[in-house]
Request: fold
Amino acid sequence: AEPSRAMAAPPKHEGIRTVAVTGASGFIGSYDEPFRGVDAVIHVAAALAISAGQDPIKDMLEPSTRGTENVISALDKSGARHYVHTSSTASVANSAKRTAFTEEDWSDAKMQGGGTSSYPFAKAEAERVVWRLTKDKPYTVSCINPSMVFGRCLAKAHAKASPFVFRQALYGNDYPNYPMSVVDVRDVAIAHVEAMERPEANGKRFIVDGDDDNMLTSAIVAEAAAMFPQFAFGKSSSPDLDPKYVLKRQWDNTLSKQVLGLKYNSQANVIRETVESMTKTGWVPAKPSGATPPSKL
Reply:
C-alpha cells in the first residue's frame, strides 16, 4: 500500500473496524442488512450522465436524492458512528461569484437535460438532503467535494469516466474544452478516510482539489501530449476561451489541508499516471505520433 499523503494530525477516532461503501446510487434495494453493525458508512455513488432520451428527474435527480435518503435511512438503523458523503465541487460553484469558491458557497444550478447538464443540480440537491436528514443525529457527518478527478484507471471502464478526455484525444474524437483543475483519485480516497477518522471534520464539507492552477482541457491534453510524444493526441474542435474569463484558482482547498491534513499530488503526476494507466494496459490503443488516431465512441 502507498503511504498516505495526509500530514500528521491530532488523535483520531478509535475502533473503526468495519466500513460500508455504497454503490448503485444507494437507490437499488435496501441497505439495512449490509449496514447493520458497521462502524462507518461512505456513500460514493451517483448518476453522472444520462442520454438525451432519458428523463433528467427520473434518471438523474431521483437516483441522487432518493438514493441518499435510502442510505441515510439505513444508516440511522445501523448503529454506525461515522458517515462520509461524496458530493462534488459541482454543488459549490455558482454563477454569481468571480473569485475562488469556498465551502461556504452553494450551487445555483437548475435542472437541465441530457448528458451531464443536470449533474450539478442533482449533486447539490443530494448534498442538501444529507445536511437536512443528518441534523442532530448521533454520528459524525462530512461531505467531500472533489473537483475533476483524474488518476490511475483500475479497469477499462474507468477510462470512460472522469478522465475520458484523454481517451477521447487518444482515439482522435472530439472532447469539450472548458476550464478545470484536477485532483488525484487517491487524494480523494484519502480525504474520505481522513474525514471519517478525524473528529474535527464533523459537520463540515471539504473542497478537495489539487494545488495547480485552472487550465483549459485543451492545455491539459497538450501537456499530456508533451509527456507522451510517441502517441497521437487529437484536438478539441472547441476554441479556447479568452484567458480573462478563466479563473486562475477556481477552488479554495485550504480547509482540506487544515482539517484533513491533505498534501496533494501534482497535476503533472496525475496526468502522467492517468495516461499511463490507459495505454500500458491496452485499454486505450494509443497510435504512434504522426498517425491518425482511430475514431471510436
